[in-house]
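**Archive record**
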Amino acid sequence: MKPIHIRDYDLLVIGECYVEFRCEGDLSLCSTFDKDIGGADLITAVTAARLGSGVSLLSAVSRDPFHSMIRERLLSQGINIDHVITSQGYNGIYFTSSRYPDQREYLVHRPGTAAESIVPAMIYEDLIENCKIVYASSELQSVSRAARHSVFKAFHFAHSNDIMVAYDPNLRLQRWSLDDAKESLWSVLPLIDVIFPSSPDESKALFGYERPLDVIGFLWDRGVSIVVVKTGSDGCMIGYDGKIEEFRPQEHSDSVKDLTLIGSAFNGGFLHCIARGYDPFTAAQFANSVALFKGLKGGGICSLPAAGDLTA
């Protein structure tokens, strides 16, 4: 296995690509939309890449009319797409509006079928050994059993070789049942080093606890070393090495324009710092700044900070 300091990539993201259509008014009334790539896992990857991390993406893109656009946009963000296969079917699409700035969910969401082509055979030793951190979320697990097995295989190999494993439960009950989400989470929980649950609703549904302190204790007891509980506008609470700290967002006078996928931007900022050798508490402060930057600027991937916009 390569020593950590000569691995080619800081972060390997395994996830689904989406096409995002964004407008500023009512979805049903707007005649003009801005089009870009999106999706929770992809935003995490793009955030880390724009900040300067070496990022590789494992995914599938359908040969539909958006095929070239997705690949070109990924390359333009500095993401390695050697492990993004071309598949049949269609790519996922979602629509979102900035009319309601406090709306955190996709307003309309249609999963594609391209990600169903992600299978365990795509996961191999050299791929995992060449990165510092392996990241996935339940967004991909919800696609198919093959996708769940792929995530498990990647996490298991990374865990067995002391490569950091990061995971976001990212509960989306419009995609699958709570029972399936729990089953998929618990199948990989023993392999996870960093987890990003949100409180209170998600943590209550998945773990039975609303308070971040309780969530941290619960996950510590199950072997997760770095617990990052995201608490929306209150920031986050971090549990690591027996210590717990809370970090609130910086005070600002401008209004937040859009919270869509702001949690995924937080994840990318956090993992970027961890890959650079910072401790989780410093990473949390920086990740709060990344999320706030996106929220204040609003929009798609162009609203994510680039290297030099923020300092850890």
Summary: The domain at 4-303 is CATH 3.40.1190.20 (UDP-N-acetylmuramoyl-L-alanine:D-glutamate ligase). The mean pLDDT is 92.
